[in-house]
Design a protein that fits this description.
There is one protein chain. Helices cover about 90% and strands about 0% of the residues. The protein starts with a helix and ends with a helix.
Length: about 120
């Protein structure tokens, strides 16, 4: 029975550490690559963040105060990268719409020039 309890404890530590490692890896991934993400990449990143957050949440009682502080920092970094990405995508879309409207206006104006 003691061996079973030890195995369960070690598995739990491994799983809680894996969740923390995944969060850290994801934060690094966003830091290094998110500036190149398109809308699909952001959708995938959002799903991945939710999955990792659920995994971390499962072990919240097992984390030390230092680990919890690290988790909070990493989650904040991820949220910051994701917010910046959302802002950039919206700005890009608005620029595209403005340019399209300019083109429409020029086209309409050009059609009436010969009249």
């Amino acid at each position: 029975m003691a061996c079973g309890l030890l195995a369960l404890t070690l598995a739990s530590c491994s799983t809680k550490q894996r969740a923390l490692d995944q969060l850290e890896s994801f934060s690094t991934e966003l830091r290094d690559h998110s500036r190149y993400y398109d809308l699909k990449d952001w959708e995938d990143a959002g799903k991945k963040f939710v999955k990792i957050s659920k995994s971390v949440k499962k072990h919240e009682l097992d984390y030390t105060p230092a680990e919890k502080a690290r988790i909070g920092k990493l989650e904040g970094e991820c949220a910051g990268y994701m917010a910046r990405g959302a802002k950039d995508n919206i700005s890009d879309r608005l620029r595209g719409i403005v340019n399209e409207i300019k083109g429409i206006i020029e086209g309409v104006a050009g059609a009436f020039e010969g009249m």
